[in-house]
Amino acid sequence: MSDLENIRLLRQVGLGIADQRSTPVTTQAINENEVKQTMQEQLTNVTDETQELDVIVDSDALELEDDLDIEDELDEALEAEDEGEDREALEARMGDLADTGASTGDPVRQYLREIGRVKLLTLEEEISLARRYEEGKEAKARLEGEGDTLPERTRRGLMRVVEDGELAKGQLTEANLRLVVSIAKKYRNRGLGFMDTVQEGNQGLIRAVEKFEYRKGFKFSTYATWWIRQAINRALADQGRTIRIPVHMGETLNKLNRLRRELHQDLSRDPSFAELADAMGPGWDAGRVEEVFQLTREPTSLETPIGEEDDSFYGDFIPDESIASPVELASQNAMNERLDEALERLNEREALVLKMRHGLIDDREHTLEEVGQQLGVTRERIRQIENKALRKLKYFESRNRGLRDFVEG
C-alpha cells in the first residue's frame, strides 16, 4: 500500500470517528473521552505519515536535481573525450542512455552519477573529518614507534583510532570528487582524455587531504584546488605530449597561450611574436617567443588519414629527402658519363690521381701524401701529375663543352 493510500485511509478513520460523535448517545456508544483520545491518536498518525511523505518527496526531488546536474556535467565532460570518435555515433550513444536511464552503458556517466550522490560537507563536518584523520595519523605514528611496548588494550584502542582516521580520509575525499570534475573540465583537449584527467586530479585531491591543516581556518575546497591543478598540470606535462617537455617549459607555454588569447580579444587579430614578448615582460624578445612555440609544437603522425574517404595517409605525401629526384638522378647519370669520357683521354696514372684526389672512388678526397703512398711516389710528383691531368682536361673541354654544361648550369 502506498503512502498516499495510507494517508487517505487514516483520514477516513478520523472522519468515521467524527461521525460517531454526531450520533445519539446510547448505552453502547463510545465514551466521549475515549472518542477524543482515539481521534487525537489517529490525527497524530496522519500528521506523522504526512511528514514522512514530505521527506520522501523532498528526497526524490533532490535526487532528481542531482541527476539533472550530473547530466549537465556529462554533456561538458563528453566534449573532452577523444574527438576522433564519430560525432553521430557519440550522439546516438548518449541518446540511448538518456532513453533507457541506464548509467552502466558509459563509464563517464556512471562515475558522474555516483559522485553526485555523495552529500556535500559543511565547514564543521570538514573540520571534524580532518581532525579525525589527524588523530588517526598520530595514533599510527605511535603504534609504529612504540607498538611493541604498549599494553594490548591501548594498542587495540589506537588501532581503532587509525581505522577511524582512514574512514574520515575516505569520506573527506569522496565528498570533494565533484570539485575535481569541475576543475578537470577546464583542461579539455590538452592531450589527456577526460577520465584520465579526472584520475590525475583525484591523486591531487588525496594529497590535499593528507596535507590539509584545518586549524588555519581555510575551507578545504580552497586548499584542495591548488593540489588538484598541480597534479593535472604535471600529468599533462608528463603524458599529454608525444615528446615530453619540462614542466617549467609547459608552464611558460600555458602563459604564452593565455596572453595570446587575451591579446587576440583586444586586437581582434593574432598578436605578433614581438607583441607577445612585450606582454611577457623583461628578458623576452620575438626570437625567444618563436623558439618556445617551435620547441613545443606537436608532431603529426605519418598515419594521419588524408582525403575525404581517408584512403591516403599523411606520410604518402612527404618526399624522401635522402633520395634524389628523377631529374637530379638523370642529370647525375649524364654527368658521370661525360666525366668517364673525359677521364678516358688521360693515361691510367693521371686518371687514378684525379679520381683519388677528388673522391670519385670512395667519396673521400685523398691527400697528396696518401695518393703518393698508393702509387709509390712523392707527394710533389703527385701534385705534378694532377696539374698535368687538369691542363689536359681544360684543353679537351676548350674544344668540346662536355662537362662545362654541368658546371655552368
TrEMBL record:
Family: Belongs to the sigma-70 factor family. RpoD/SigA subfamily.
Role noted for this protein: Sigma factors are initiation factors that promote the attachment of RNA polymerase to specific initiation sites and are then released. This sigma factor is the primary sigma factor during exponential growth.
Family annotation (Gene3D superfamilies): RNA Polymerase Primary Sigma Factor (1.10.601.10), Winged helix-like DNA-binding domain superfamily/Winged helix DNA-binding domain (1.10.10.10)
Coiled-coil regions, chain positions: 329-388
Subunit and interaction comment: Interacts transiently with the RNA polymerase catalytic core formed by RpoA, RpoB, RpoC and RpoZ (2 alpha, 1 beta, 1 beta' and 1 omega subunit) to form the RNA polymerase holoenzyme that can initiate transcription.
PANTHER family attached to this UniProt entry: RNA POLYMERASE SIGMA FACTOR RPO (PTHR30603), RNA POLYMERASE SIGMA FACTOR RPOD (PTHR30603:SF60)
Annotated organism of origin: uncultured Truepera sp
One Pfam family per UniProt: Sigma70_r4
Alphabetized SUPFAM superfamilies for the sequence: Sigma2 domain of RNA polymerase sigma factors, Sigma3 and sigma4 domains of RNA polymerase sigma factors
HAMAP family recorded: Sigma70_RpoD_SigA
GO molecular function: DNA binding; sigma factor activity
Lineage of the organism: Bacteria, Thermotogati, Deinococcota, Deinococci, Trueperales
GO biological process: DNA-templated transcription initiation
Protein name, UniProt field: RNA polymerase sigma factor SigA
